[in-house]
Each structure stands twice: as structure tokens, then as C-alpha cells.
Design goal:
The protein is α/β, with parallel strands linked by helices. The strands form two sheets. Strands 9-8-7-6-10-11-12 form a seven-stranded mixed sheet, sandwiched between helices. The structure holds nicotinamide-adenine-dinucleotide (NAD). The site of nicotinamide-adenine-dinucleotide (NAD) has 24 residues, from helix 8. Nicotinamide-adenine-dinucleotide (NAD) binds next to helix 8.
């Protein structure tokens, strides 16, 4: 059913695939993921038919929905869900509430999810979605109605055996609890209670997994630990900086601090702060909690110029906020020797090229932050089987799975003499290629 493998894919097809949007900043995240994909496809000599399939997204859902605001007026919102590929299992991926969220971001992020779930060895495909809003402009009750109405608008485009959302930027376990409740409430009474695994990342009291909150940050920490161990070095005494102090940024900092590493500086959407003696992670967390997560005004550090953040003298950098943060504009100034990608797509291709030339190791997002989706998979399994797993068992399982994936990737790096991201992509895409070759194309 499949054409012969060829080394190069026809340029006309690639250029068709690359057409996205007019806005340059938005275009580049999608362009990045497409470039990464085609580069890997060339290196691994991917079956050309499968290249065609993986170059496009299966479904792109766009919904407009009205919500009544606290002042009684109605606002109309735009929400997205992009389902890239489900060759390995149900679609899986987060929901992001952000002012810059659009269909191209969703497409890029959905594609990354396909690679991530495949690399992690999970029975899932890839999806992503969200709403184009700045949640800081809305009250909690407005956010609840926006989330519930978005869930209703998506209808059966999501489902526990079809497409399973999870938290992402500006969404959290509360958001997931509202989605699960809305989804279940709109089903017939007989099937209602069987549907809680429509989302993962729920609060522990509502079917959530012990440890899902820290799973992503733990995974980022673990990949750093494995990397330094492979060089016979420990994390103790190492200096690091973190961009984003949300779910991922906080937890990874906490795990690193426990290991004796020193948090030199933090940048979030509101401020950039530094303390040469180290920032106390839980103190900063307590400061940010009542301030909608903002680190601004923390007394245990001083504010610095945001532009100088990535150039700080440290051992490693953890971008844990948005995409396209490390680019040609700042890559030459980076002094750290390691970048651990907590965020999705934080390094653009030009930034990466510069860093690789300068001998910087980049632990790629699809491996580095995959602890989250691995935790989500365990939550889903737990819900499906009616089980409740204790925290230590969950953390042990995440550690085992991530360590295996890390080692597999390192073997490909050594065997094929490629950079880490390319190795991760080769592993991820090969697994999907095998699935397609084995089952063929309907009809
Ligand atoms: P979050 O909403 O909890 O935190 C986001 C953080 O980024 C906040 O501190 C915010 O202030 C900061 N931020 C936003 N815009 C910024 C800007 N312009 N400059 C600097 N900082 C900015 O989100 P999260 O769940 O921690 O996700 C962070 C990243 O990690 C995202 O890229 C997400 O896709 C990725 N990720 C998250 C998970 C997860 O389980 N939560 C899993 C895998 C990947």
C-alpha cells in the first residue's frame, strides 16, 4: 500500500504544507515543527506516503461560543482543538488559555504531542487546543462559565476513548474538573460516571492522579540528573535559571533545589528577578500564590533587566513558559552549556543551530517535558480500571519510563551521530511509521 522510500520529498509538496498564516511570529512555531519533521524524515528516509500523512493534521476544530459575563453582557470567544494524528491511539494533549493562542499554535503543538506520546511509548496520538483569552482579565466564575461553555461547544469532538485534553499554560486541575463535570453532565445518566477520563490532570479528589501536579517538573529534573550523571557530575552546586514559574517552572525548581542546585534567576510574564545567593523556591511560590502566580515584588530577590535574562552566567537554563523564546536574537549570548526544554518549542531552529555549533546540549521538549503526559497516561489508566495508586508508586513508574526513554534516545545519538532532538524525532516517527506499515490504509 505504500510507495517506495526515497531520500528527498518533492519540494512542491513541502511548500504546500508550509503555507500557514500571514503573521510572522505565529508562522514560525508551526514552521519550526514542520522543518524539524522534514529534516528528520530526510535523515531517516521516511516512507513518502507516511510523510504525506504526518505532514497534515487530521482534524482542526474551531468553535465560537457566547458566555454571559459578571456584568450581564455577553462576550463571544474563540476556541480550538487540533487533532494531528491518532495512529497509535486516542488523541492526547493540553488546552491553553492565552491571548496569543490561535489555530497555527494549536497545529504546531498538536504535532509535537504526536511525537511526544510516540517517543514516550504511550498508546496515544497528538492534539492541542485552547481559547484565545488572557485569563487575567476574567473573574473565577467567568472562567468557569467560559470553560464549561467551551467544553459544551466541543461536544463529542473530545471523549475518554477519542481525545483526552489536559492542563497547559493558564489551565490547571480546576479547569480539568470543570471540563470533566460538564462533559459528564451532558451524557445520559447511564454512561455519565464512566467518563471522567475525558481529561487528565484533574484534582486528586475528583479522579486525579497523586503526583500528576509534579510529573512534568519531575521529568525535566530527571533528564538533567541523567545528563549530568552521564558526565560523572552531580546537580549539587549547579546554578540554573527558569523562565516561567507556573506548574512546570515551580516543580522543576523545587526538585533541583532539593538536590542542592541553586536557582539564580526567574522570569515570568510580569518580572525578571535574581539573587546570586539563590532564590528560595517555596518562598517564591508562597509569594506568587495570592498574586495569580506573579513573581513580581518578591523580597528574596531583586528585579533585573528582562533582556539580560538568558545571558546570565549559569550551568543550565530551563525555559518553562512559551514557545520561541531562544532564538538567533539571544542564542549567541547564552553562557549555559545545557538547555532543558520544560516548555514546548522554546528554542526555534535558528537558535538551536547557533547553540549546537557552540557545543550547547539541548534536552528536547518531547523528551524533557514528557513526564506530564506519562503521568496523564497513568491517571487515565487508573480511571479506566477503577484503581487508586499511591504517590510513591506513581513517581517510581514515571522515573522508570523516562529513564528508559532517555537511554533509548542516547543510543540513537551515539549510533547515528545526530543531535538529541533529531534522535528523539527519529525514535518517535519510526514508531508511527511501523504502525502505518503494519496496518495499511483504509479502504
Ligand atoms: P503555567 O500556566 O502554569 O505557567 C506558565 C508560566 O509562564 C507562568 O509563570 C507565566 O507567568 C509564564 N509566562 C507566560 N508568558 C510569559 C512570557 N512572555 N515571558 C516569560 N514568562 C511567561 O503553565 P505550565 O503548565 O507550567 O506550562 C509551561 C510550559 O510547559 C508550556 O510551554 C507548556 O506547554 C509546557 N508543558 C506543560 C506541561 C504540564 O504538565 N503542565 C506538560 C508538558 C509541557
Amino acid at each position: 500500500a505504500f510507495g517506495k522510500k526515497t531520500k528527498k520529498y518533492p519540494a512542491n509538496i513541502i511548500s504546500k504544507i508550509m503555507i500557514t498564516t500571514k503573521e510572522p511570529a505565529k508562522k514560525s512555531m508551526y514552521e519550526n515543527v514542520m522543518e524539524q519533521f522534514h529534516k528528520t524524515a530526510d535523515i531517516m528516509n521516511l516512507n513518502p506516503d507516511i510523510r504525506k500523512i504526518l505532514s497534515i493534521t487530521n482534524n482542526e476544530i474551531l468553535v465560537h461560543f457566547p458566555v454571559k459575563m459578571d456584568n450581564g453582557q455577553v462576550e463571544v470567544f474563540t476556541g480550538y482543538r487540533v487533532q494531528h494524528n491518532n495512529a497509535l491511539g486516542p488523541y492526547k494533549g493540553g488546552l491553553r488559555f492565552h491571548a496569543t493562542m490561535d489555530i497555527d499554535d494549536a497545529k504546531a503543538l498538536a504535532m509535537w504531542m504526536t511525537w511526544k506520546t510516540s517517543l514516550a511509548g504511550l498508546p496515544y496520538g497528538g492534539a492541542k487546543g485552547g481559547i484565545q483569552i488572557d485569563p487575567r482579565n476574567y473573574s473565577n466564575s467567568e472562567l468557569e462559565r467560559i470553560t464549561r461553555r467551551f467544553t459544551f461547544a466541543l461536544g463529542d469532538n473530545i471523549g475518554p476513548e477519542f481525545d483526552i485534553p489536559a492542563p497547559d499554560v493558564n489551565t490547571n486541575e480546576q479547569t480539568m474538573a470543570w471540563i470533566a463535570d460538564t462533559f459528564m453532565s451532558t451524557k445520559s445518566p447511564a454512561t455519565r460516571s464512566n467518563n471522567k477520563h475525558v481529561v487528565t490532570g484533574k484534582p486528586v479528589g475528583s479522579g486525579g492522579l497523586e503526583g500528576r501536579d509534579r510529573a512534568t517538573g519531575f521529568g525535566v529534573y530527571l533528564t538533567l540528573k541523567l545528563l549530568f550523571e552521564s558526565k560523572n557530575e552531580s546537580l549539587s552546586g549547579k546554578k540554573f535559571i527558569v523562565q516561567g514559574f507556573g506548574n512546570v517552572g515551580y516543580w522543576v525548581s523545587l526538585f533541583l533545589e532539593k538536590e542542592g542546585a541553586l536557582l539564580l534567576a526567574v522570569q515570568d510574564a510580569h518580572a525578571t528577578i535574581i539573587n546570586e545567593k539563590g532564590i528560595a523556591v517555596n518562598d517564591l511560590f508562597e509569594h506568587s500564590k495570592p498574586r495569580k502566580g506573579s513573581i513580581q515584588g518578591f523580597s528574596g530577590a531583586t528585579e533585573m533587566e528582562p533582556k539580560e535574562f538568558f545571558a546570565l552566567d549559569c550551568d543550565f537554563i530551563i525555559p518553562a513558559a512559551l514557545g520561541n523564546q531562544i532564538t538567533a536574537a539571544n542564542a549567541y549570548d547564552i553562557k549555559a552549556k545545557v538547555i532543558a526544554e520544560g516548555a514546548n518549542g522554546p528554542t526555534d531552529n535558528e537558535g538551536e543551530r547557533i547553540l549546537l555549533e557552540r557545543g550547547v546540549t539541548i534536552i528536547p521538549d518531547i523528551l524533557c517535558n514528557s513526564g506530564g503526559v506519562i503521568g496523564s497516561y497513568f491517571e487515565w489508566l487508573q480511571n479506566r480500571n477503577g484503581e487508586l495508586w499511591p504517590l510513591d508508586e506513581v513517581m517510581e513508574k514515571i522515573e522508570k519510563k523516562m529513564t528508559e526513554n532517555y537511554k533509548k534516545m542516547q543510543n540513537v545519538v551515539n549510533e547515528k551521530q545526530v543531535d538529541w532532538r533529531t534522535a528523539a524525532y527519529i525514535l518517535a516517527i519510526s514508531r508511527i511509521e511501523t504502525a502505518y506499515v503494519q496496518r495499511g490504509i483504509f479502504p
